[in-house]
């Protein structure tokens, strides 16, 4: 058994139209491939809620602010298709760059507000690239539901905002971050870690969970964040790019724990940039 692979918008639209004739509810799971258990958890969630599930695989050049990062991005389509088949995903949509951005392509979708700060501040143009390709994937698939991981928490907000603002009739469903047994959030970029860096990497999540516990128990933001940053650097990370508490509902900066929050971080381990985030809840609301 293998997953059918389609590479053009026309073929994709024809397939979805045939499903629609039978009244199918269609879901899309956008990815850049190099599939791991995090991606597969999204596919499983989609299969529970939809009759037909499209997984998209497109390494989107427009969202890479760093050409070396794009060049090094893992590309494993054959293995990805083999992982999807046993799950029962119905289609792998894997267009090439020319299909997604034909000559003359001139449109950018830019989401203000939630794209600013955090990753947006450190990866110029990244969220414009994400918003543009996600809008295209939503319109190309015409899906009813779209599944995204909380690991990319800011991206989730960007995608929700764009669907609302552009009146795209699609429901965005967030799925929890899948972690390794030692706490490291699964990410396609983890394969770039050396064996020694891989040993250090879980300190990021560990420090975030500890700080979230302290914040929930009433610790001062400045003290809990300073301690977390110190622990991340002491573990061998080269640099903490950001470490911030934001409102879970709208990503607004917070100085008091007066509503559900997330603690979000990006940090460099050698040549690899890792991101992660955890929930923060006042102990009384836990
Ligand atoms: N550990 C995870 N748990 C849950 N969802 C995840 C996880 N990792 C990625 N995802 C989700 O999978 C979708 C596709 O992400 P993507 O293909 O960029 O993978 P990735 O592992 O995040 O790669 P990278 O961060 O290295 O680009 C996104 O919605 C993303 O949030
Ligand atoms: C949503 C996405 C597939 C758009 O290229 C990408 O940003 C990702 O993999 O998270
Ligand atoms: N997982 C988000 C895609 C990116 O880092 O470009």
Automatic annotation (TrEMBL):
It is an enzyme of class 6 (ligase). It catalyses: (R)-pantoate + beta-alanine + ATP = (R)-pantothenate + AMP + diphosphate + H(+). It comes from the Bacteria. GO terms for molecular function: pantoate-beta-alanine ligase activity. Pfam families: Pantoate_ligase. ATP binds at residues 32-39, 149-152, 178, 186-189. Its EC number is 6.3.2.1. (R)-pantoate binds at residues 63, 155. Beta-alanine binds at residue 63. The reaction proceeds by a bi uni uni bi ping pong mechanism. Homodimer. Belongs to the pantothenate synthetase family. Catalyzes the condensation of pantoate with beta-alanine in an ATP-dependent reaction via a pantoyl-adenylate intermediate. This is Pantothenate synthetase. It comes from Chelativorans intermedius.
């Amino acid at each position: 058994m293998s997953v059918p692979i389609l590479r053009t918008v026309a073929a994709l639209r024809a397939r979805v139209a045939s499903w629609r004739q039978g009244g199918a509810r269609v879901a899309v799971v956008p990815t850049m491939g190099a599939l791991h258990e995090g991606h597969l958890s999204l596919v499983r969630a989609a299969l529970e809620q939809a009759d037909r599930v499209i997984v998209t695989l497109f390494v989107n050049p427009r969202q890479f602010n760093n050409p070396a990062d794009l060049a090094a991005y893992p590309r494993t389509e054959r293995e990805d298709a083999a992982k999807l088949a046993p799950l029962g995903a119905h289609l792998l949509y894997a267009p090439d760059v020319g299909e997604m951005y034909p000559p003359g392509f001139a449109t950018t979708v830019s989401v203000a507000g939630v794209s600013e700060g955090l990753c947006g501040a450190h990866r110029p143009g990244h969220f414009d690239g994400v918003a543009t390709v996600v809008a295209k994937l939503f319109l190309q698939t015409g899906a009813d539901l779209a599944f995204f991981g909380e690991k990319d928490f800011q991206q989730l907000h960007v995608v929700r905002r764009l669907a609302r603002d552009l009146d795209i009739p699609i429901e965005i469903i967030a799925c929890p971050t899948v972690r390794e047994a030692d706490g490291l959030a699964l990410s396609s970029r983890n394969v770039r870690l050396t064996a020694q860096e891989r040993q250090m990497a879980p300190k990021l999540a560990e420090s975030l969970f500890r700080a979230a516990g302290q914040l929930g128990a009433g610790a001062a933001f400045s003290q809990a964040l300073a301690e977390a940053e110190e622990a991340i650097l002491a573990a061998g990370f080269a640099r903490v790019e950001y470490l911030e508490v934001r409102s879970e509902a709208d990503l607004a900066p917070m100085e008091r724990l007066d509503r559900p929050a997330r603690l979000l971080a990006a940090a460099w381990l050698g040549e690899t940039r890792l991101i992660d985030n955890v929930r923060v809840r006042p102990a009384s609301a836990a």
